[in-house]
């Protein structure tokens, strides 16, 4: 496992970090995003989308559960907040083991069906911004984070 901790003071800085990951992610990548409401999870996905050359505007998928975007690779943006107990019906595997990039907000609610190998990102409020903590599990994910974040 590899851990990276990055502090940002603006929304744009958070997007820029995410863009760097989006620039180098490969098919089949899984990222999860934890953090309180307003922490910056969807902001992070907007930056990721820039790195994936997605033209469409990325918004919170809260009312659709999964939104798909076309870019250099497909992006599957999921909000698992309202899924507690319903994760079996979701066909999550098709996304997670597919050819796109899957990013899941509120992974706490689907933890039982998520692979351990992924980058888990936690965004926390701090006095003057946000702290982003990246935990990469698996060689592919450690390599990805080293390339994008160090
Ligand atoms: P979430 O998806 O976690 O509920 P959003 O990304 O929708 O959060 O909203 C984050 C809000 O916090 C935005 O209004 C954004 O402008 C603001 N913000 C302020 N500072 C930061 C920062 N350093 N990183 C990300 N967002 C920030
Ligand atoms: Mg959100």
Task: Outline the structure in words.
The chain is built from four helices and seven strands. With 150 residues, the protein is an alpha/beta fold. The chain has a single domain, classed as Rossmann fold. The chain has a seven-stranded mixed sheet with strand order 1-7-6-2-5-4-3. Helix 3 links the parallel strand 4 and strand 5. The longest helix is centred in the N-terminal third of the chain and has 14 residues. Bound molecules: adenosine-5'-diphosphate and magnesium ion. Magnesium ion binds next to helix 2.
**What's the gyration radius in Å?**
14 Å
Strand-residue proportion: 25-35%
What is the CATH H-level superfamily? Answer: P-loop containing nucleotide triphosphate hydrolases
Instruction: Assign a percent range to the helix content.
Output: 25-40%
- Let me know the number of strands: 7
Poorly predicted residue ranges: none
CATH fold-level label: Rossmann fold
CATH class: Alpha Beta
The helix-and-strand class reads: alpha/beta
Continuous helix count: 4
Separation, N- and C-terminal Cα atoms: 15 Å
Tally of domains? 1
Q: Please summarize the sheet with the most strands.
A: 7 strands, mixed
What's the architecture, going by CATH?
3-Layer(aba) Sandwich
Categorize the overall geometry.
globular
Give me the strand/helix succession. EHEHEEHEEEH
Please give the order of strands in the largest beta sheet: 1-7-6-2-5-4-3
User: What is the mean pLDDT?
Assistant: 93
Ligand list:
adenosine-5'-diphosphate, magnesium ion
